[in-house]
Amino acid sequence: MSEAVLHEVHLIGCGLIGTSMALDLRAKDVKVTLEDSVSTNLAEAIKLGAGSTEAQDSPDLVIVAVPPSAVSEVVIAALEKYPEALVIDVASVKTPIFDALDAAKIDLTRFISTHPMAGKELTGPENANAGLFKNKVWAVIKEQNQTPALVLELIHLLGAKPVHLSAIEHDKAVALTSHTPQLLASVLASLIAEADEAELCLSGQGLLDMVRIAGSDSKLWSDIVMLNTANIVAHITALQAKLTNLVEILESSETSTTKDELITLIEQGNSGLAKLKQIQDRNLS
Amino acid sequence: MSEAVLHEVHLIGCGLIGTSMALDLRAKDVKVTLEDSVSTNLAEAIKLGAGSTEAQDSPDLVIVAVPPSAVSEVVIAALEKYPEALVIDVASVKTPIFDALDAAKIDLTRFISTHPMAGKELTGPENANAGLFKNKVWAVIKEQNQTPALVLELIHLLGAKPVHLSAIEHDKAVALTSHTPQLLASVLASLIAEADEAELCLSGQGLLDMVRIAGSDSKLWSDIVMLNTANIVAHITALQAKLTNLVEILESSETSTTKDELITLIEQGNSGLAKLKQIQDRNLS
User: B-chain residues within 8 Å CB-CB of A239?
Assistant: First the structure.
């Protein structure tokens, strides 16, 4: 691994994630060339100093940072256009990408699928920043036997920590920890959208934190969610069962039982939060 | 109002909220005497410099900062023991307190019910801090024609902003913006508690923010929730209907409709978040 050195990276897709990666790489003196089908995104990324559009010599690494539903097509084109380069993607859903590449009978030797667990509720290059990946987990899909050193170098260079898992494991995990919470935040925020202003006059930081990610981009997130529906529906169904049980507890006339069962629920939540914090701390230690 | 001056405050209940208020008042050179039925809480609050237990001369103001289900009883005793003082409470639920005081035929002339919209997922005097109420909204229940100047002085002294509303309006508002989100965070965190560790390895800040308040104290929160069940059940039922609709959208075989409806949901969430931020900004401007 010590021999791999990133010299030149070609970025396809100058959104929040791609541009943030490019800014980090530029700060580490890696040459970055940029490409985006949306000319305003490309212009903004160049303005920010994320790289240039000059002809690539021969990139070591091509980063495909386009919306999930476009990834497989762009990866196939990149593997063909850059026959010497490794190609990675950074999409939030994995199984459908591998399905599409398998269906197209693509040799996956030079393709590594990855997903940095970093983001914002804001999108576009104008919200990008270097440092976005520092101390974040970065999923690497282990369809290959070994992750190429160059990919690990990229992740380390950006201050992130690689976590290796399969595409199926990845999609199950993000359904629980990212996609379902995202939709739940949207549902809660849509209840706020319908509420009278008088009902909102006493809101504080707790609610704001819970709906922060409801500010996310609707086109990007509908794209992500549609590629992982079965896993998400399983979690929403589990949530619904818990909410139905909660309503039964609240409507029970046995107040001492209600109190005990509410305490049990809140303590389960205490445990869940403690478990989450412990895993996050351990992942990043 | 300019003539009212807080000289001496007696605090009953040295938990997070009460002790934080006392620390703020001490920093402004207001004399504070302390009382708590739990001796360890009292000792901790004294150690932190929140006040003393020396005999009160004649407090201008008595602050009742005990758990909601104990408030009415403590308020009745305080009104009797301190016949010259104003008595306020700071509980998270209002209607049951007024119901109990009305049932006991208490003269409410010297009682003002209030609720600072500040807190933490942590409890107890050991987590208290001065400044907790700075730039926070502070509900004042307008059962009286006019809020006494001393109460407004207290709120301003602690850097908060008073919002006047009725007990019924208060309980409806906090059901939506505090109690339902609190339970939703617990429900989501309880799903995490049941999950395999492998499913949690990719979690990030978004999920952590959504479940932060799931760390709240189970005894305090079961107490609060049980005093506002009808309002809470109405919101949970509305959430359930939205989740049922979401599952139908996700399971639909018409992908173009699914995409459109997901975009609509996420955009409703965008609007809800924007509305919430706007109201919070306006409240505190």
Answer: 187-188, 191, 243
